[in-house]
Amino acid sequence: MSNSQKTNTRLDGKIALVTGGxxxxxxxxxxxxxxxxxxxxxxxxSQPADANQSYHFIxxxxxxxxxxxxxxxxxxxxxxxxxILINNIGGTSSPAGGFGTLTHEHWNNDLQLNLxxxxxxxxxxxxxxxxxxxxxxxxxxxxxxxxxxxxxxxxYGAAKAALDNYSKGLSNExxxxxxxxxxxxxxxxKTGAMQAxxxxxxNALGKTIDxxxxxxxxxxxxxxxxxxxxxxxxxxxxxxxxxxxxxYITGVNYIVDGGTIPVV
Length: 264
Known about the structure:
Layout: H1 3-7, E1 15-19, H2 24-35, E2 39-44, E3 56-59, H3 67-79, E4 84-87, H4 104-132, E5 135-140, H5 150-174, E6 179-186, H6 192-205, H7 209-220, H8 231-241, E7 253-256
Parallel strand pairs: 1-2, 1-4, 2-3, 4-5, 5-6, 6-7
Organism: Pedobacter westerhofensis
Family: Belongs to the short-chain dehydrogenases/reductases (SDR) family.
GO molecular function, one term: oxidoreductase activity, acting on the CH-OH group of donors, NAD or NADP as acceptor
């Protein structure tokens, strides 16, 4: 690695797509990459009123079959390719309560959103990266892939575990072809989505949000740093990983959890 690579975290001239990029972790990542000089494309089901107008927004529901190809076609027509793909979209609409509360539809929805949406978007955008001989793909996973919370979000954790495995396999396939693939697994992050999850979890448990939060913290063993991450904490790592400074890094799952995972 050259000295310029070691110090260069700029992204001037790069085109980055951030899925779910209008709020929470996705918005923080989009802002971080824009600050580094990248041209930003964001996608979500709908554009919020306070969206950054300097970003190119494309509406897409990536959990639906065909939406990834539609999105990729529009991007290729307008930009030619993307250099950086941040597969940030994810979440769960499944009820808390464990196995007996979960239907086929719950499982299918979570697998489509958290696993197949990034798989399908990778398939749609990778050909242009491979043609160029360079690119970076980041999959945003979760520590739930290693710390299952059966009471709260069993299908979500299972889907993220599958995403981790897929991401590692894809990195091995593409490493010699100039495309780097990495995974970032946050612990609890202070976002609107987290607050909504805790509200639903509290209702399922018949507890207050503070009580439900404590139940979750007890299940994961607490956060040694004593607080949830901010979205910007995740974005800073992503900004480094997609930059020339990280040119020799691929196939790694980075845990960003304030020390929660109890193993080395």
